[in-house]
Write a structure and sequence with these properties.
This protein has two domains: 113 residues, Immunoglobulin-like; 179 residues, Galactose-binding domain-like (Jelly Rolls). 7% of the residues lie in helices and 41% in strands.
């Protein structure tokens, strides 16, 4: 009898070993969150764990002994989110209440999620486009006049540098150097630049401009741009935008140049070669000079 009891106990023990490891097969997950700069985010986040490829919240545990755990949950004070679950893969959703980031089909070896804020976390970059680097373009696209006598005769399209005698020309107004278009002059000036490696999104040109007209006799500055890449055919059709009216704020004591945003609908990308074209547009009745002092390209930087 004793021998039978011993055998029974031994068999029962072996069976218990076959049952208990079920919990031991649960998978331990842990992940930490960093922002776009690589800095750890330790507060203000909520995690939700889903069964991989579904919108069903998974059953998760607080420890290997399957302690109860809410889903969704906040990470620990160290910013690390930890949980146990049976499945070997899952989808991890992280939110701060405004922005949501999701890591699909995560495994126990995934320990890092980059949480990119869709708001704030944007820094403005700029590229100055000095007027001293601009050149005149002579063609028929904007109804431009033929080159002046000081420029070698050109058939069809051509370019020349801006000078004191060109049209438009360099001048000093308001104690600042500028490019001046007199009434009736519509030849365009251009400048080219590359989109830098820290470009992320957006793109707007901004110019400092003024008119010598007094009162309501305003004139307009028109603009277009070309976007070229090294993997595509040259962009021969510019993105022609709507002219911006430039007003004078001459008040009898002096004049002041104004800053104008030239919005863009084109698609910019890192490395693109962009050419900005500016010219006077006589859609208004103003006869005063159009004065261009500076141009800048603004964009959202990659952090």
């Amino acid at each position: 009898m004793n021998r039978f009891l011993k055998v029974f106990v031994a068999v029962a023990f072996m069976l218990s070993l076959l049952v208990l490891p079920a919990q031991a097969r649960d998978n331990n997950y842990w992940v930490r969150i960093v922002d776009a700069n690589g800095a750890e985010v330790t507060t203000g986040l909520t995690f939700t764990i889903y069964t991989a490829g579904t919108s069903t919240q998974a059953t998760i545990y607080d420890d290997r002994n399957r302690g109860s755990m809410s889903n969704a949950f906040d990470p620990g004070t160290d910013g690390v989110a930890k949980w146990w679950m049976v499945a070997s893969t899952c989808d991890i959703e992280v939110t701060d209440g405004t922005t949501t980031t999701k890591l699909s089909t995560a495994t126990m070896t995934d320990h890092l999620i980059v949480f990119v804020l869709d708001y704030i976390e944007l820094e403005e970059g700029q590229i100055d486009l000095p007027i001293g680097s601009m050149y005149i373009v002579y063609d028929d696209e904007e109804g431009a006049a033929a080159p002046p006598d000081s420029v070698q005769a050109i058939t069809g399209e051509g370019v020349s540098m801006v000078s004191r005698v060109s049209a438009p020309n360099y001048d000093i107004q308001n104690s600042l150097g500028c490019i001046v278009w007199e009434d009736g002059e519509e030849s365009a000036v251009e400048i080219s630049f590359r989109i830098p490696a820290d470009y992320r999104s957006g793109g707007t040109f901004r110019v400092w401009a003024n008119t010598s007209a007094v009162g309501g006799n305003d004139c307009s500055i028109d603009y277009a741009y070309y976007i070229n890449t090294d993997t595509a055919t040259a962009d021969t059709a510019s993105d022609d935008e709507t002219a911006i009216e430039v007003s004078s704020i001459f008040d009898g004591t002096g004049a002041s140049e104004n800053e104008y945003d030239l919005s863009c609908a084109g698609t910019f990308a890192v490395g693109s070669l962009v050419t900005l074209r500016l010219w006077r547009d006589d859609i208004d009745t103003g006869t005063g000079n159009l004065e261009l002092y500076h141009a800048t390209f603004y964009y959202n930087k990659r952090l």
